[in-house]
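Hello forum,

I keep getting stuck at the same step: I have a sequence, I want structure tokens, and every attempt I make locally crashes halfway through. Rather than fight my setup again tonight, could one of you with a working pipeline run this one for me? It's a single chain of 130 residues.
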Amino acid sequence: MTLLAIVVGVLLILAIYLFVRSRLKPKDKEKRRRLTVNQTGRIGDAMITDVQDGIIFYEYSVRGVLYTASQDISQLHDRIPSDPDRLIGPCGLKYTTSNPANSIIVCEDWSGLRSNPVHPPSELSPTKPQ
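Reply #2:
Ran it on my machine without issues. Output:
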């Protein structure tokens, strides 16, 4: 009798978990994916090729296979520079080893974006004592 109660309890917990998980909004599922890749992913190098309408397009290679991917960054506007065109170029990424196509460039807790500071010409040339 107690074994039956345990099985029923486990099935009930599983049903509640699946119900709650299925009710997540797409943006919440994407956030969960980003955070999971961040926690379990391996770091690599990528090249951002374009930024359009809140989406970063990038390419990277894992074990000789070239991947072309994109990431919706509309929820991460506080992590993105005001001029997204400055993002084009090399960056870091995280990807899952079991599915290298599952990758991120930026999430809530990590960023592979490299800053490209723009210096005025006076800062680039050494100052000479007068």
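The two ends are 94 Å apart (CA to CA). If your local run keeps crashing, start a new thread with the error log.
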